[in-house]
Amino acid sequence: MNMTNAEMNRLRWSCRRGLLENELVLERFLHAHAALLEGERLAAFKTLLGYGDDELWDLVSGRRECGDPALGEVVRLLRNC
Amino acid sequence: MAVARRSFDAVVVGAGGAGLRAALQLSEAGLSVAVLSKVFPTRSHTVAAQGGIGAALGNMGEDSWLWHMYDTVKGSDWLGDQDAIEFMVREAPKLVYELEHFGMPFDRNENGTVYQRPFGGHSQNFGERPVQRSCCAADRTGHAMLHTLYQRNVRARTQFFVEWMALDLLRDASGQVLGVTALEMETGEVMVLHARATLFATGGAGRIFSSTTNAYICTGDGLGMAARAGIPLEDMEFWQFHPTGVAGAGVLITEGVRGEGGYLLNKGGERFMERYAPNLKDLASRDVVSRAMATEIKEGRGAGPRGDYLLLKLDHLGPEVIEKRLPGIREIAKKFADIDPVKDPIPVVPTVHYMMGGIPTNYRGEVVVPAFSNGRSDPEAVVPGFYAAGECACASVHGANRLGTNSLTDLLVFGKAAAESIIKFLQENPGRKDLPKDAAERTEARLARLDGQTNGESVAEVGMEIRRTMQAHCGVFRFPDMLAKGVKKIREIADRASRTQVKDKSRVFNTARIEALELDNLIEAARASMVSAEARRESRGAHDRADHHSRDDSNWLKHTLWYKDGDRLEYKPVHMKPLTARTIEPKVRTY
Ligand SMILES: Cc1cc2nc3c(=O)[nH]c(=O)nc-3n(C[C@H](O)[C@H](O)[C@H](O)COP(=O)(O)OP(=O)(O)OC[C@H]3O[C@@H](n4cnc5c(N)ncnc54)[C@H](O)[C@@H]3O)c2cc1C
Fold it and tell me: What separation in Å is there between the alpha carbon of B266 and the centre of ligand 1?
């Protein structure tokens, strides 16, 4: 992982959500997989954090499938958190 | 340190339902409006509201605002102010139709009218039978409402300060409120936002408990800021426990599940709510259901290996109803309880959900405090330039216990009412008062203390201690010795909270610093709650004391006011007189 302190902090703050459901999953994710966050995975994670809470929860809970193959791996990791 | 300043007609702190509804009114009136939010507006906690907005539209059968008023007063266990309640229930249908015209995608009946679902505590004909009063957009009412209001605000050119955290309220020597100081997270810089009127819509403080349905952002910032500026906090002993939080996770299972026909079972498979509330059963008011559940657990009828939860059964509704009317529920149960509710019941426990107390306001959204002037005392003198709406405010419509769906109603009605009051105040007071020279002093001192602290306390540990103490000493059932110990403990923790230290001294998005600043607010909300709860020697609504089992109207039909200064309490009368209706006289509350 080659994120700066500021980048990591920004990422952590983006995990503050309106839905507790998302926060719990994102917290588990950061705990388990923060070290994996670089390159395309990091980009995918950032894209997902940019989603609205319901959209994100739909993907995480499997209520909706992810259309974008670039996000697939991170969505899978989130689903297992 | 020279602190940069910007000036606005109105500053709104908070971009949830209440803040957005207010900001819209203000921007549409042509005022310059700054809305601050710790997170992107549509990530405010309002997004989590699933169940709906309470309004007596009468789309599903006969309904009337008087019945809605009766249910709300009774739900509040007579602690709600009846003028504010009448105002809210009469305005509610107008505000719902307004939202409909803004484009809110409500569920519909076949005849095109807004679909309304049943919800706990709402009844027809003064408690006779349940009524369908909750206007919803599937299980995404809050989401739809936030998006609808946000879009309207963008159109009205409201200015958003996203990822800005308000730190302190600014008052001059006369007590008038003149804006806030705020931290821009991106740069770590502090700015003074000078305003002719300031509205707090900062939401709740559920994070003072360890088991809560609230998101991490609900740290009671508005309460902390108000308390530090000398404003008392009202009725903070009243915390609503939602009957159905997923055991262990806190995540909420909406009451809509019981509205659609789900019900609770104990370990013996008994539908125990029939014993506690023969008429409304599982749809009785939240405090009644939570207490019944806590009793079942206490008396050894809880389910699970440790007997510490109950079971919410909905498989009999069939997968189709569950998918169509309650789609999110299935995924939540799978993820956080590891069961599929189409087949198995969900393990649930009463979980902290909603703060009935808050910053004292009248039904116009003006902040009111006791004052003494011209030789007479006024329990509710208006603080010029200061307004509050939504969960952070106490109007008080929810009294000792809020009815489900009445919070979204509150956000809309009092968000708009507060904005109307601001518009009038600005018309009557056209100038702009100067800021005192030392306006940012309190904030600068707080930050200097935090940045310079050595050998200090860990923010995470002190936060954990607050949550543990509140959960153990101020839960569904309250015991006098536990409360007394709780007061002592929370005062000790407050002392520790004044010595927090952060190791990360960076500026940009320093989340450790932000969390330390949030802790300053959590501790005020917690202290207010514990001290107020210890003092109230009766049981009313959500406040249930083991040594005083019943409501005591002769001594306690009054609102609590907690002051940070001196950590002391005062009381003020409940408004028993509605605006036009007849007083709903106190009686025993049964469902
Ligand atoms: C899971 C769940 C479901 C619910 N369902 C329903 C329902 O169906 N019906 C109903 O009536 N009620 C429901 N409620 C209650 C209701 O959702 C809330 O009471 C309501 O949404 C609170 O809205 P608000 O506008 O007061 O605050 P919030 O939506 O919490 O917004 C607070 C805003 O203040 C901002 N803020 C806070 N502190 C600061 C600061 N220091 N500086 C800058 N900005 C700040 C935040 O960023 C945010 O924008 C539910 C609650 C939960 C937890």
Answer: 32
Q: Which of B286, B364, B442, B551 is catalytic?
A: B286
Per residue in B137-150, is it b (16+ CB within 10 Å) or e — as a string?
bbbbbbbbbbbbbb
Distance (Å, rounded) from C-alpha B574 to C-alpha B79?
6
Quote the mean pLDDT of chain B.
Answer: 95
State how many domains chain A has.
1
CB of A52 less than 8 A from some CB of B:
yes
Contacts of B509 in chain A (CB under 8 A): 6, 9-10, 13
Give the nearest partner residue to B509 out of A9, A23, A54, using CB atoms: A9
Which 3-state string (H, E, C) describes A13-58? HHCCCCCHHHHHHHHHHHHHHHHHCCHHHHHHHHHHHCCCHHHHHH
Q: Kindly determine whether residue A17 and residue B39, on different chains, have CB atoms separated by under 8 Å.
A: yes
Q: Check B39 against A18: CB less than 8 A apart.
A: yes
CATH number of the domain within which A19 lies: 1.10.150.250
Q: What is the ipTM of this complex?
A: 0.95
Q: What predicted TM-score, i.e. pTM, was given to this entire model?
A: 0.95
Burial class (CB in 10 A: 0-12, 13-18, 19+), B306: exposed
Residue B122 contacts by C-beta under 8 Å, 6 or more apart in sequence? B54, B68, B71, B130, B131, B133, B134, B403, B404, B405
Q: B15 C-alpha vs ligand 1 centroid, how far in Å?
A: 9
Distances (CA, A) of B376 to B124, B175, B275, B381, B570: 44, 18, 51, 11, 17
Interface touch B42/A18, C-beta < 8 Å: yes
d(CA B51, CA B138): 8
Contact call for residues A12 and A4 (beta carbons, < 8 A): no
- Which residue has the least CA distance to atom 5 on ligand 1? B49
Q: Which domain holds residue A56?
A: 5-79
Q: Extract the tokens encoding B507.
A: 């500026």
Is residue B286 annotated as a catalytic residue, yes or no? yes
- pLDDT tens digits for range B499-530: 999 999 999 999 999 999 999 999 999 999 99
Token pair listed for B198: 């300031």
Distance CA B497, CA B521 (A): 10
**Is there a contact between B359 and B388 (Cβ–Cβ < 8 Å)?**
yes
Searching chain B, which residue's CA lies closest to the CA of residue A55?
Answer: B143
